[in-house]
Amino acid sequence: MLRGKTVVALLSTLAGVSGLWTPGSSVPGSRKANVEGIQEAVLRDLLEDNRPGYSGHANPLLEDRVVCVSISRTPEPLSNDEGDPNTGLLARLGAAGRPVVPGSSCEMSKTGLVVRETGQRAVLIGVGVPEWISSDFVKVHGAWYLGPLYAAGSRYTVSFAGGRWNVDTVAFTWVS
Asked: pTM for the whole thing?
């Protein structure tokens, strides 16, 4: 027969393995349910990036461009396995006044990345699937792209505090 501490240890182990809860965790819901909040924090950081030239390029997000948003199904953003964010996330990202559209709405043209239907100049931002370090701390990659020789990516650390996911650090990792 199982007793007291054994039952608690067994239940917390099962909950931790399933990603629903870990001892001391203040993060509500499953890991899967938190992925969008993590990705939104990184996308917001990309949109609000005031680090011009941190990659060696002028930051295209500071220019007057439509922002195409992509969500990767792998850890690497802007991979060939991308999808569009849901309409709720797009609306929240666009609430700051920047025009945002799903990544699938954009394409390369002779003049660079553009919105397919309007021809407006665009920049693509994307975020990958997070790597869980603990129940309230992840590493995740984000990037922006204008073309094969005008793009940059960073590794982010993101933690859960104050009831939401927040970017802690940004480390530049690549440029093209």
From this structure: 0.80
What are the sequence ranges of the domains in the chain?
A: 29-175
Residue with tokens 């182990």: 13
For residue range 139-152, what is the model confidence (pLDDT) as tens digits? 999 999 988 888 88
Nearest to 56 by CA among 157, 127, 153: 153
In CATH, the architecture of 29-175 is: Roll (3.10)
In which region does residue 29 sit, left (phi positive, over 0), alpha (psi from -120 to 50) or beta (all else)?
left
Cα separation, 68 vs 30, in Å, equals 28
Could you tell me if 61 and 123 are in contact, meaning their C-beta atoms sit under 8 angstroms apart? yes
Residue listed under structure tokens 């007793």: 3
Q: Are 153 and 143 in contact, with CB atoms under 8 Å apart? A: yes
